[in-house]
């Protein structure tokens, strides 16, 4: 199969879960298939590249390229989000032009997320190429609680349009499928393909040394000034409303009173100024700290290893790779009800994670206090979570099921 892969992030440009998805799944997709990736340029990457048996095209505009070379744009800030959106639109047009001029047509075009709708529509109507639409996020047009306002419903309408013409729509959880169906999408074309664990390759590497990671985590704790006897509650994600971070901060006075010495460490970029204001007004100085921006690679592993438990109280998540990251490293995990129930595991009576009501700070506080004050519960959640990710969530299986969807789209057969 010759696959044109249109996605906003591709290694080494990884700034969110979408980039991690691309990094993990593409090595499996290239086994016996030809992959041409069309992606954004952060200002530092070559326009054309052959990368690990993948052909990569990254168009570079002068203005946005100059901005990107100075610093990475932060999508949680309105002006920078607008610049990113402009870059996406211009790049979408260039992807289409590149495909139109190509000497060899792809068998299939896969469009990842609503931000690439323009190229999907152009490839369908102008080039008559079959489209598969991957819905990785519903925050713009579908989710009942949106991270970005869509007052005229234009994004939702465009998403439905591409979903209608696509031969298949791929989502990561049954909850997103039902969300799309409720919004008027065609049930027959929607396929659920769960994702794998972000750290799957790292943990499977024979050279991986857990003791060395523990040493790095201890050194990180020292740099942050957290005493060895204090418990650490870890949040990883963008600092914005949809991630439930403000409800978590509202819950922190009760948590801090019930668990002396506990520190909340927030890892991610976004509204750090808002966090500081809330922390100051709540008298939580010294009990809450932030990473100062995006964290990846070895340092992110050290943050997880340092944690006694992790909490991700998202209002909604199309999948939520942070859950697989923490579970894979055997960290006890607390999830908001915006996450899929696939993380519970096979036995609801012995769940692999604990769920909370994302909009209820008291429920968040009650659950965090229970987990942080019960060592046996933490050990049980850690063991069940690690086993669930290791046994049930595999990128090899994700890629195999994804390719099955692609073949069905080309054959025009039923779902």
UniProtKB/TrEMBL annotation:
Pfam families: Glyco_trans_4_4, Glycos_transf_1
Keywords: Glycosyltransferase, Transferase
Keyword Glycosyltransferase recorded: yes
One GO MF term attached to the UniProt entry: hexosyltransferase activity
Gene3D superfamilies tied to this protein: Glycogen Phosphorylase B
Entry-linked InterPro entries: Glyco_trans_1, Glyco_trans_4-like_N, Glycosyltransferase_grp1
Keyword Iron appears in the UniProt entry: no
Domain Glycosyltransferase subfamily 4-like N-terminal: 17-196
A Gene Ontology biological process term: carbohydrate derivative biosynthetic process
Domain Glycosyl transferase family as annotated: residue spans: 220-386
UniProt name for this protein: Glycosyl transferase family 1
Organism whose genome encodes this protein: Planobispora siamensis
């Amino acid at each position: 199969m010759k696959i044109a892969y249109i996605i906003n992030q591709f290694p080494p440009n990884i700034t969110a879960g979408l980039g991690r998805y691309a990094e993990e799944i593409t090595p499996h997709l290239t086994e016996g298939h030809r992959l041409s990736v069309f992606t954004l340029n952060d200002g530092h990457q070559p326009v054309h590249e052959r990368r690990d048996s993948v052909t990569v095209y990254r168009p570079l505009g002068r203005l946005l390229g100059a901005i990107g070379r100075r610093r990475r744009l932060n999508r949680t800030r309105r002006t920078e989000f607008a610049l990113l959106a402009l870059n996406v639109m211009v790049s979408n047009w260039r992807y289409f032009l590149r495909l139109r001029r190509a000497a060899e047509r792809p068998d299939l075009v896969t469009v990842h997320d609503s931000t690439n709708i323009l190229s999907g529509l152009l490839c369908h109507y102008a080039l008559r190429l079959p489209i598969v639409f991957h819905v990785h996020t519903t925050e713009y047009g579908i989710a009942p609680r949106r991270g970005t306002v869509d007052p005229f419903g234009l994004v939702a309408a465009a998403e439905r349009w591409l979903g209608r013409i696509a031969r298949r729509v791929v989502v990561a959880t049954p909850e997103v499928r039902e969300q799309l169906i409720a919004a008027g999408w065609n049930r027959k074309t929607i396929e659920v393909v769960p994702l794998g664990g972000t750290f799957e390759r790292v943990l499977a590497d024979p050279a991986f040394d857990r003791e060395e990671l523990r040493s790095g985590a201890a050194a990180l704790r020292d740099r942050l000034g957290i005493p060895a006897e204090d418990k650490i509650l870890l949040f990883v994600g963008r600092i914005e409303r949809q991630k439930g971070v403000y409800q978590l901060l509202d819950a922190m006075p009760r948590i801090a009173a019930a668990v002396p010495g506990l520190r909340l460490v927030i890892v991610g970029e976004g509204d750090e100024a808002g966090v500081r204001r809330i922390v100051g007004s709540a008298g939580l100085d010294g009990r809450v700290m932030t990473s100062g921006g995006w964290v990846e690679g070895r340092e992110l592993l050290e943050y997880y290893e340092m944690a006694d438990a992790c909490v991700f109280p998202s209002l909604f998540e199309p999948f939520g790779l942070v859950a697989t990251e923490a579970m894979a490293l055997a960290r006890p995990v607390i999830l908001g009800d915006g996450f899929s129930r696939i993380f519970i595991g096979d036995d609801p009576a012995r769940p692999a994670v604990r769920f909370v009501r994302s909009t209820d700070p008291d429920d968040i506080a009650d659950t965090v206090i229970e987990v942080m004050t019960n060592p046996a519960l933490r050990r049980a959640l850690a063991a069940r979570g690690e086993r669930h990710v290791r046994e049930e969530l595999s990128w090899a299986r994700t890629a195999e099921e994804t390719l099955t969807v692609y073949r069905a789209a080309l054959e025009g057969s039923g779902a």
